Amino acid sequence: MARPSHMLVDLAALINNYQWACQLAPHAQTMAVVKANAYGHGMVACATALQAYAPALAVACIEEALALREAGIHKPILLLEGTFTADEVAVAAAQDFWLMVENPKQVQAILNAQVCKPVTVWIKVDSGMHRLGFNPQQVQAYYPQLLASPNVAEDMVFATHFASADETSNNFTRLQVQQFMTTAKRFKHPVSLANSAAIMAWPEAHGDWNRAGFMLYGNSPLDTDHASSDGLLPVMQLWSGIISVRQIDVGESVGYGQQWRAQRPSVIATVAMGYGDGYPRNAASGTPVLVNGQRAHIVGRVSMDMITVDVTDLNETQIGDPVCLWGPGLNINEVAHHAGTIGYELMTRITQRLPIRYTH
Ligand SMILES: *Cc1c(COP(=O)(O)O)cnc(C)c1O
Which of 100, 136, 196, 285 lies at a C-alpha separation of 20 to 30 Å from 33? Predict the structure, then answer.
């Protein structure tokens, strides 16, 4: 009794990938980024597995960090965007959350806070992405104030973030490294630059702390094949099953809007997975799926609860046969490409309806 649709999360693969990230940058400490529900994989389960290995975790906001504390995660947690309101500073200090500081208002909040102990501050430098962070003049202005404040712990870190590290032949990453280091080297603090793409493709960006996200979940963010992805194992497997099979004639259509028509007598299998589960509605006819481990393709529109697949060329397909939407043998990046998006988005938009099963 159950709809066959579920997400399988391989926690052993997660740990393998974390260790691979560490191996690629042996002189850096690697924090595990588990924001956005661990990129859709279940934040508490992933953080619980990772905290035995990672010296620190990272999330996007204090709500995520507090949920981790409530679940018994005891490692330091970096808030990648720092505080959103001033009252978060005291909570961060008490809970051992590290604060990214990237704008003047956040500096003021730290200087004015009543804290039980000094808070660890990461100063975010805008080295060219122009989304968050201080320019070099602002760093000169605010760093001395933070340094002098009794609210700020001594172990400050200087950090930046890359715009295009996934593009392995885009020299902008090198420019950002130079820009950042010019500012950061005036201050004798540890540095943090690299996200997954930079860990994998830009060794010159390996700092004292690296921030690994997407790669932990077992896929490469890079735009080209690269040896640095050889050690990654996919963590998320999206599974469902065949719930109906039918034969249709030449010229007959499949699904909403009759968007796809058979060019030959065809066998159509219906799979219990749709955009209500987070499968992308944009996945066009031709998007690959694995039916009984064999490649087949979506035909017609993705609907809320189902997709339709052309299984004409496969050996007999039956109700109950397993279908893998992505996982080992079918890379999420390939599916994302057919849907006009990236693996990051597909992972994070899986919905609550889909049960998660964990394997260790
Ligand atoms: C999300 C995030 C990361 C992790 O990026 P990946 O590409 O998933 O490795 C690193 N640093 C910051 C500031 C982030 O927001």
Answer: 136
216 DSSP assignment: G
- Best of 41, 64, 80, 167 for a ligand 1 pocket test (most atoms within 8 Å of beta carbon): 80
- Checking 298-303 for CB contacts under 8 A at 24+ apart, the result is 299/254, 299/255, 299/260, 299/266, 299/268, 300/253, 300/254, 300/255, 300/256, 300/259, 300/260, 301/255, 301/256, 301/257, 301/259, 302/274, 302/275, 303/255, 303/256, 303/274, 303/275
What one-letter code names the amino acid at 88?
E
**Residue 164's pLDDT band (boundaries 50, 70, 90)?**
very high
pTM: 0.97
Torsion of CA 356, 218, 123, 131, to 10 degrees: -90
pLDDT the model gives residue 245 = 98
CA distance 159 to 138: 14
Half-sphere CA count of 307, side-chain side, radius 13 A: 34
> How confident is the model over 313-348, as pLDDT tens digits?
999 999 999 999 999 999 999 999 999 999 999 999
124 lines ligand 1 (CB under 6 A): no
Hey, how many other C-beta atoms are within 10 angstroms of the C-beta on 135?
A: 14
8 Å CB contact between 297 and 287: yes
pLDDT category at 225 given cuts 50, 70, 90 is: very high
Ligand 1 centre from 329 Cα, in Å?
26
Distance CA 311, CA 26 (A): 47
Token output for 59: 């999330």
**pLDDT tens by residue, 269-313:** 999 999 999 999 999 999 999 999 999 999 999 999 999 999 999
Task: Give me the DSSP letters along 219-233.
Answer: ----SS--GGGTT--
Mutational test site, ligand 1, from 20, 33, 206, 235, max ligand atoms within 8 Å of CB:
33
Residue pair 291/321 in contact (Cβ under 8 Å)? The answer is yes
- Residue position matching structure tokens 């690994």: 212
